[in-house]
Amino acid sequence: MNLIQFLKKIDECMDKMKKEQLAYFIHEQARNLNEEKREIFLGNLLKSSNREKSAKETERNEENRVLKKEIKERAADVRKKVTEINAGKVSLTSAINE
For residue range 8-48, what is the model confidence (pLDDT) as tens digits? Predict the structure, then answer.
């Protein structure tokens, strides 16, 4: 079986598995490794974990960037209105009811 077929079969199997089943499988694979392969396996697992964290951080950073832009736009609108009020161009005609 070539690599593409092999990976397709792996993906199909993983899609059917629950998180707990995948964790058990990984644990069993690690338990059965030769001692000389353990460091490599652990390194690969840690790299994979860090990639997931990095993707989440990128997503979070993008959300923060959008929120900051929105806040800056709203702050600019408020500053503009305050400037208009201070210049006498606009006046307050009502109060907030509590």
Answer: 999 999 999 999 999 999 999 999 999 999 999 999 988 88
Between CA 53 and CA 32 the distance in angstroms is 27
Per-residue tokens: 50: 């860090």
Distance separating alpha carbons of residues 7 and 70, to the nearest angstrom: 43
Type of residue found at 53: K
**Chain centre to alpha carbon of residue 75:** 27
Could you tell me where the DSSP H helices lie in 1-98?
3-16, 19-31, 35-86
Is the pTM higher than 0.70? The answer reads no
